[in-house]
Amino acid sequence: MPHTLDPELRRAVATRIRYYNEMGIYDFYRQPVSEAASVASGAAVVAEPQSESREEMSPRKAAAVAAPPAIHGDENVFEVFAAKPEQRVSDPVKALKIIREDLGDCTRCMLHKQGRKQIVFGVGNPEAELMFVGEGPGADEDEQGEPFVGRAGQLLNNMIKAMGITREQVYIANIVKCRPPGNRTPEREECETCSPFLMRQIAVIKPKVIVALGATAAKTLLAMNSSMAQLRGRFYDFKPTGVRSNEPDWQGCKLAVTYHPAFLLRDPRQKGEAWKDLQMVMKELGLKAPKTNT
Ligand code: URA
Fold first, then answer.
1. Is 130 within 8 Å of 173 (Cβ atoms)?
2. Between β-strands 130-134 and 171-174, what pairing exists: parallel, antiparallel or unpaired?
3. Going by DSSP bridges, is the β-strand pair 130-134/209-213 parallel, antiparallel, or unpaired?
4. Interatomic CA distance for residues 144 and 171, integer angstroms
5. What is the C-alpha R_g of the chain?
6. pLDDT tens-digit profile of 260-282?
7. CB distance 210 to 131 below 8 Å
8. 180 lines ligand 1 (CB under 6 A)
9. In terms of C-beta density within 10 A (0-12 exposed, 13-18 middle, 19 or more buried), how is residue 7 classed?
10. Does the Cβ of 138 fall within 6 Å of ligand 1?
11. CA–CA gap between residue 193 and residue 204 (Å, rounded)
């Protein structure tokens, strides 16, 4: 059943959202329709068993390739009006600072009480053409407050260098900004709670290409539950969800998937495959590998 929203109700919702925005409130959480309807009618809400298994990702509100759900051929009222505070500034350094301040000393998910030392926001050129997105900070990153500074980071630096560019030219971030205990894979809820901040960073940086490093980054950004073998080897059209860029003409960027450097450290035979992915990205960006003396 398509969503229909009475035009008058739509206007009322838009006015209310604008009012909240003016008070500095930008994040809204939607109840599932059936739950909201039950609450509205005063009926008790009975939790439905989840049909989705933990590993599966539904084609989420944040789907990268699909457009946001339309309401009667119109844009989603929440996405139209829930402007973010950083959209008011044109300087990307200031805009990223606003997002960082909004994140604050984040307690939105359980990771904040599972031993994180600090939030690892992201690092690099705020106007980067190329952005790398990993999974989440490890011990070294948690210690230093910067993504990809440990062994996997050394390999990522080498991969970037092999593309003929420097770490300072790109922007590097993760799906979750706090270290999962014991370097476990972040839970789906943790990814969904944290990734809106990454989406806002992407909307500010407006890269030409994003490289998703590993399955967690790829599946979260693309809202797809395919295997790495299925995800690699092509570009996806990507637009950060739930947020608009301050440049209305920005049509989004391309997204490629490659192996996580930590995986390549465990299985160096896959480095050739990762290099193929990076060559596809280099071609898109007009980059040439530096000449070597060998
Ligand atoms: N692995 C990641 O996914 N991110 C980091 O920042 C470091 C290791």
1. no
2. parallel
3. parallel
4. 17
5. 20
6. 999 999 999 999 999 999 999 99
7. yes
8. no
9. exposed
10. yes
11. 19
